[in-house]
Design brief:
The chain is an alpha+beta fold. The protein is built from 3 helices and 3 strands, in the order ααβββα. The chain has helices spanning 4-25, 30-56, 86-106; strands spanning 59-61, 71-75, 78-82. Strands 1-2-3 form a 3-stranded antiparallel sheet. Strand 2 (71-75) and strand 3 form a beta hairpin. Helix 1 (4-25) crosses helix 3.
Length: 107
Amino acid sequence: MFDPIIQLNHHIALLHLKSMAVEEMGKFAGMTRSFIKVMGQLIMQELQKSKETMQVNKMWVAEQPLPDGRYRYSCMGRTGIHEVTEETIEHYKRMALGSIEDRLKKV
């Protein structure tokens, strides 16, 4: 069963992972940078899947948070503001990274 709050938290965590990867790319060179680039591509693939899931369920979430860290979103034509804690973001980031890790193990 689809839960919009879970999807919002998952998507927001992926947005955080994307920004972390972009930030880290500038700090490194060589092999480490290549690894970060591959991880960034995998994160982008997960982010695209998340966007597609949200589109099917008539949802969207803003790519950038409001100044106070909350996110604007829409679900089935109703808009709102989603407040997510750092603990929740960390939890969903671990879940997303676990999913990416599983994909890497299969390669």
